[in-house]
Amino acid sequence: xxxxxxxxxxxxxxxxxxxxxxxxxxxxxxxxxxxxxxxxxxxxxxxxxxxxxxxxxxxxxxxxxxxxxxxxxxxxxxxxxxxxxxxxxxxxxxxxxxxxxxxxxxxxxxxxxxxxxxxxxxxxxxxxxxxxxxxxxxxxxxxxxxxxxxxxxxxxxxx
Length: 159
Description:
Elements: E1 6-16, E2 19-27, E3 44-46, H1 53-65, E4 74-80, E5 86-93, E6 106-110, E7 118-122, E8 124-131, H2 132-138, H3 144-158
Parallel strand pairs: 1-5
Antiparallel strand pairs: 1-2, 1-3, 2-8, 4-5, 6-7
């Protein structure tokens, strides 16, 4: 498997007012500043050479949200995004204090383009919990199967 085309991520969920909610992340940087519906993602990132995929998913979640994932991890399988990248995901039950600022790692790009100026941006500029219906609007369409698989796996437990 070509690891450079492989990402791993975590879908944190909780139950509020008897509704399943999932944590989604909005990509940071100027290219996504005005993009909303259909551009959010599960917190994820590339798998390093020799790294186990679940370990990569846990590392990426921690780096992008500042939250330490704990608990049982439910395998949600993999999907392939439009650009060909495979994304493997696991779900876990958790929460984050939404009153606290997001603690995301950063990346650097030349901005504005051809300006010669390199600027730093957070990988994730926002994260929030959404009901499954809301998540279907926010989340990249290619990642919708993760929502379906989570609902199917939890259906008996939440009903």
